[in-house]
Automatic annotation (TrEMBL):
Keywords: Repeat, TPR repeat
Domain of life: Bacteria
Pfam families reported in the protein's UniProt record: TPR_16 (PF13432), TPR_6 (PF13174), TPR_7 (PF13176)
Name of the molecule in the record: Tetratricopeptide repeat protein
Positions annotated as TPR repeat: 106-139, 140-173
InterPro entries hit by this protein: TPR-like_helical_dom_sf (IPR011990), TPR_rpt (IPR019734), Ycf3/AcsC/BcsC/TPR_MFPF (IPR051685)
Organism of provenance: Leptonema illini
Cited SMART domains: TPR (SM00028)
Amino acid sequence: MEARTLSRACRPERHRHQHGLSYAYDEIPGSQSGDPALMSELFRKAVAAQKAGREDEAMAVYKSLLKSDATNRAAWINLGAILSKRQDRVGAVACYRKALALREDDTILFNLGSELFRQKEYAGAIQHLRRALQLKPDFFRAALLLGYIHESQEQYVEAAQSFQRALTLNPSSRIAALGLVVVLGEQDRNEEALKICEAYLKQQADDAALLNLHAALLMKLGRYRESFEELKQVTSSNEKYVSFEEHLKQARGERDRETSAFFEEVSDRLKERTERLKARIEERKKRQQKSLAKDDMKDLVDLSLLHLFSGDKDKALAFLLEARKVADRDKTGG
């Protein structure tokens, strides 16, 4: 009997909807104290108000329900979802913790993990999202968010595992494919990244971000001629080229805040890396050091990639041409 109860508790609730970045319940699962019929009717009215955008009305009903029955877990969760959407992080976390103390399930664990992520409490967010995935192994959004968090902390092995899981659950997910390609590239697992890129481009051949990454990966693999030809094609004025910065601007305006968050994180990382690379080159000039050909090529390829993402396609191609010259000299021993 105990095992059956635990299994039921761990099963995901089917009747829920997304409110902002959180989940909210459509009905009260299980039993509650007071008049069950009346409580359910009031709850349904609150949900209807919440979905219609009448959040003040919904909040008033949830608070009234909780005053009558503080164990009304669904009311705590839905109230937390409204507070989260209103950027009341402290209030949302307090509501979610109340719900979690009453019972654990994948919904509350995801909501709490998401909120902790937005408060930059990464360790707590990771803990709750991992537990959500233990209870619901096919929870796509939990796997995706876990990938974001690990990527933001430069934990690329864990990020790759999470993005791979998300992509397996949803092979058509653009952001899961992008995330996986980026973090594999960070680990110099470029052959793997190229395969992921090519698999996605078979589904969506005109995705500019993945086309950019594909050309960049060819660079990193030393396939300069192919990369150069591909970049000329995707960056020509009459083609579908969109810089990474343009993708970022576009993502900021999208309803999908998770996509926006991903692009923000990667954009910041690209800017930081550009500055580090410039500093390294300046230091080399000051010391009048000549680097090995491989180091020259790596720096030139990195600079090409960074300028490509920032939208300066002319400099991207110029740096790639320089990398090709270095590669040719290295092959001929000149």
